[in-house]
Amino acid sequence: MGANTLGIDASESNIAIASLHASADPGLDVTSSSLSLSTPPESSGAKGKGRLLYENTSVEDLLAQRGPASFDVVCSMEVLEHVDNPRAFLDSCAQLVKPGGHLFLSTIARNPFSYFLTIFAAEKLLRLVEPGTHTYTKYVNPSEVISFFQAYRSQDEHGTPWIGRLANGVPARIEAETRGMIYVPWDAEWRLSRRGEGWSEYCNYLIWK
User: What Gene Ontology terms describe what this protein does at the molecular function level (predicted)?
Assistant: First the structure.
């Protein structure tokens, strides 16, 4: 869609695989490491294409390198449930967002149902996922992420909380939203649940702030 995009991963091999996949997409300009996302498109012959740059780094190191308020949109998909310090990770992601920008996270809730689906069934029984991929104690519930952003303060001079008061445990729709992600096997696709369907957040879910 013409956006300048930076993809990061702490694994060098993951970056190599992602770069290989992206190079096969004619709609992308996979920018070399010698160019930055701010380089004019004509410099790489990619006018009209979305520009994609990959870096082998962590979000903490990216924050130290780029500084706060560096990105309009920050996405962290299926990462939070693998980190050792989720609060520090969320803090780094939040700091990277420009004022008025957006943060998208997806992760897995912590409860017996999610354990059954993602570890017992997917890893141990069906072997759809490499055993040991997930650690149940690292799963994070939606309410815990919401609580973090209630306490988190914006980087501007006002230092306002990212999420104000809750109504029945739910933030105002203009401040944040959580939605469950459900796999529909007969259609072989993932679907985003409707607002207010709390039961759908018992396993995989998405949060926007």
Answer: 3-demethylubiquinol 3-O-methyltransferase activity; polyprenyldihydroxybenzoate methyltransferase activity
Angle of helix 142-151 relative to helix 86-96, nearest 10 degrees, comes to: 60
Q: Does residue 130 contact residue 118 with C-beta atoms inside 8 Å? A: no
121 and 153 share one domain: yes
Q: What is the pTM for the complete model shown?
A: 0.87
b vs e for 157-181, b when ≥16 Cβ sit within 10 Å of the residue's Cβ?
eeeeebbeeeeeebbeeebbebbbb
Instruction: Clarify whether residues 24 and 115 are in a common domain.
Output: no
What pLDDT does 45 receive? 47
> Are both 27 and 130 inside the same structural domain?
no
Same domain, 46 and 92: no
3-state SS, residue 100: strand
What Rg value do the Cα atoms of the chain yield, rounded? 19
Per the structure, the complete domain to which residue 96 belongs is given by 69-208
Euclidean distance between CA atoms 176 and 146, whole angstroms: 8
d(C-alpha 202, C-alpha 29), whole Å: 38
| Residue 93 contacts residue 140 (beta carbons within 8 Å) | no
Q: Is 62 a domain residue?
A: no
- Which residue stretches of 24-159 are H helix? 59-66, 86-96, 112-115, 142-151
User: Number of structural domains, the chain?
Assistant: 2
The reply to whether 45 and 79 lie within a common domain is no
